[in-house]
Amino acid sequence: MSCRSQKIRIIGVPMDLGQSRRGVDMGPSALRYAGLTEKLQQLGYATVDSGNLDIPGHFTLAGTSLAERLVPIREGLERTYAMARQAVNRGEIPIFLGGDHSIAIGTVGGITHDREVGLLWIDAHGDFNTPASSPSQNVHGMALATLLGYGAGELIDIGRPGRKIRPENVVLIGTRDLDRQEREMLRISGCAVYTMREIDEIGIGAVLGRALAVLERFDTIHVSLDLDVMDPIEAPGVGTPSTGGLTYREGQLIMEVLADTKTLGSVDIVEINPILDIHNRTAQVAVDLAASLFGKKIL
């Protein structure tokens, strides 16, 4: 259960091998520059920054095929898994700064090593492709499927063999951009999915109520926040923007309501690409959202 007595450990995972656009490896620096640590300390948390994991970038590879990328991706995610497990065992709340969303294969794997958690996947995309279904062959679009045991065995077995989380433990919010085969796989997956249509029709408050009802049996929730869930007007600095996303206030309400549950156990903040951003706006939005998630209130 989240409280100010828990230490927050910040872990940078500058992975850019899970997708094809350079720059997302600078996401951890952008978040630090936007004042993440200072915001958390102002809220009364003790913070420790472990720096960045040493992960090779695209520029170190001779080619860009999935087969060539899988080896360094796996090595980086094994280290991420270990860091996640260690933080949880120390009783800390880890915040993982991406990097692309493939880092969640390691983060969610590590935090679930010794316990079950609820997973809230806040993302414009389903990330439910496999190498057989993916048009792009980008691992960041396979992360959730991998965690549920679908796709490349080299990734599924990171940290420990087999799937890392059950579908009934997973809720997606903000989904709006799916590949054809991915759509069918996600539909039958057993995960709860709340698309932008549900948000438009019944409002973000009602969607949150339904999402939290799915996860209410868990004492601990992991939030995996991909900044492309926000509308590009709010968060332009992402590699795969998708129009029609969350407004700033919808994003804030999600975080405020989650904070009220006092079940936050760990967080991913991913897919910020400073090269594509405007005056670090996307990182600043992410820091504002994180502050609300950790208890910042209007009154």
Please provide a brief summary of the model:
The chain has 299 residues and is an alpha/beta fold.
Poorly predicted ranges:
none
CATH superfamily: Ureohydrolase domain
Distance between the termini: 22 Å
Q: If helices are DSSP runs of H or I spanning 4 or more residues, what is the number of helices?
A: 11
Biggest sheet record = 8 strands, parallel
Strand content: 15-25%
User: Within the largest sheet, what's the order of strands?
Assistant: 2-1-3-8-7-4-5-6
Top CATH class? Alpha Beta
| CATH architectural group | 3-Layer(aba) Sandwich
Quantity of strands, as a count: 8
**Rounded Rg:** 17 Å
Mean pLDDT comes to 95
CATH topology: Arginase, Chain A
Helix fraction by DSSP (H/I, runs of at least 4): 25-40%
Shape: globular
The run of helices and strands is EHHEHEHEHHEHEHHEHEH
Number of domains: 1
Content-based structural category? alpha/beta
Walkthrough of the structure:
α3 packs parallel to α4, α9 packs parallel to α10 (248-261) and α10 (248-261) packs parallel to α11 (281-293). The protein starts with 7 loop residues before the first strand and ends in a 6-residue tail after the last helix. The radius of gyration is 17 Å and the shape is globular. Helices cover 36% and strands 15% of the residues. It has a single domain (8-293), classed as Ureohydrolase domain (Arginase, Chain A, 3-Layer(aba) Sandwich), CATH 3.40.800. It has helices at residues 27-33, 36-42, 66-89, 104-111, 143-147, 153-156, 180-187, 196-202, 204-215, 248-261, 281-293; strands at residues 8-13, 47-52, 93-98, 118-122, 170-175, 192-195, 221-226, 264-270. It is of the alpha/beta class. It is built from eleven helices and eight strands. The model has no long low-confidence stretch (mean pLDDT 95). β5, α7 and β6 form a beta-alpha-beta unit.
